[in-house]
Structure to design on (344 residues):
């Protein structure tokens, strides 16, 4: 069967790989319908690594996908042949101390689609996944929404972890797909004022569609001064979704004393820094967000709400053979791209 493999830095090729087969009674064979290009995929594409995760070429990327069930193992009960499903790309062991503690997202033996050293990705015609990773979406959800449920679950989890409540004011720094997911999740809990920043104007337009009450471009204005002018007391929560040093600094300045900084963006560098005097005097809390944990069902319920429409994030579509074009587009933030989809 065909798969799109990363063969070098900024190089991909359509290759033949062996057909996947069901080996466990709870396995499910899937026909891939659509794959979303994620910023973490692009890190591997442009640098060949994320921290200690280093690609050995060739390697198949991709973890945001929707699929159709084409065969099930003998013990599968949750899905049946021809079901369309959203796919949770994380495959925890369910046995280690982290899994037993309810922290499957930090499983010590985690296998994750499209992660070097763990599992090949979903930029392939067919894959096999455990049934626990599959969530039927045939009831009122589109293929686009099934794919978007993966980044949206990160937003749902981040808002959950931040304990954002009705009336709390928050800022989202970086309005890419994950930042937009955070905005939608924050709006769903009836938060107070929501501020969003990005260097790309079309993404600011998308942020307003996602629920931001104010947007600003740091290339044109001092966003810290502008937000604090509107909210002199500062933010209850700041979600850092860009993985940049300047947004980390802005977050510390924006937070009120006792505020919470949620680190969601993935930096390309190994170390970042904080002005410890400001953090200490404000007694700020810093929480790292590792993907999501058991939030897929809640995310699909959110997508079924009539007041939530996440499909505005889909701005570009490509065929599998055009994967390089899709990755180059996302890597360069060109043409107002928010979410590029690769269709099978």
């Amino acid at each position: 069967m065909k798969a799109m493999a990363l063969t070098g830095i900024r190089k991909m090729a359509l290759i033949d790989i062996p057909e996947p087969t069901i080996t466990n009674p709870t396995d499910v064979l899937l026909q891939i319908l659509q794959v979303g290009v994620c910023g973490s995929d692009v890190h591997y594409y442009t640098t060949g690594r994320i921290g200690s995760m280093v690609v050995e070429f060739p390697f198949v990327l991709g973890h945001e996908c929707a699929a159709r069930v084409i065969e099930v193992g003998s013990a599968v009960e949750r899905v049946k042949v021809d079901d369309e499903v959203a796919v949770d790309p994380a495959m925890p062991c369910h046995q280690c101390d982290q899994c037993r503690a309810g922290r499957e997202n930090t499983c010590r033996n985690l296998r994750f689609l499209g992660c070097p050293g763990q599992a090949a990705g979903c930029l392939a015609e067919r894959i096999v996944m455990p049934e626990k990773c599959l969530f039927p979406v045939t009831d009122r959800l589109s293929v686009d929404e099934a794919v978007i449920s993966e980044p949206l679950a990160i937003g749902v989890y981040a808002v959950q972890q931040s304990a954002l409540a009705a009336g709390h004011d928050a800022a989202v720094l970086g309005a890419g797909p994950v930042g937009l997911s955070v905005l939608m999740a924050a709006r769903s809990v009836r938060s107070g004022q929501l501020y969003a920043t990005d260097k790309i104007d079309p993404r600011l337009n998308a942020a307003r569609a996602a629920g931001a009450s104010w947007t600003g471009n740091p290339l044109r204005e001092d966003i810290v001064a502008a937000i604090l002018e509107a909210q002199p007391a500062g933010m209850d929560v700041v979600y850092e979704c860009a993985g940049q040093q300047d947004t980390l600094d802005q977050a510390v300045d924006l937070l009120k004393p006792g505020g919470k900084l949620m680190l969601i963006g993935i930096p390309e560098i190994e170390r970042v820094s904080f002005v410890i005097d400001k953090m200490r005097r404000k007694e700020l809390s810093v929480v790292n967000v590792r993907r999501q944990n058991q939030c897929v069902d809640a995310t699909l319920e959110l997508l079924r709400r009539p007041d939530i429409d996440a499909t505005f994030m889909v701005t570009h579509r490509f065929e599998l053979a055009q994967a390089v074009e899709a990755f180059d587009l996302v890597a360069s933030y060109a043409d107002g791209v928010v979410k590029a989809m690769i269709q099978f």
Summary: The radius of gyration is 20 Å. The domain at 154-288 is CATH 3.40.50.720 (Rossmann fold).
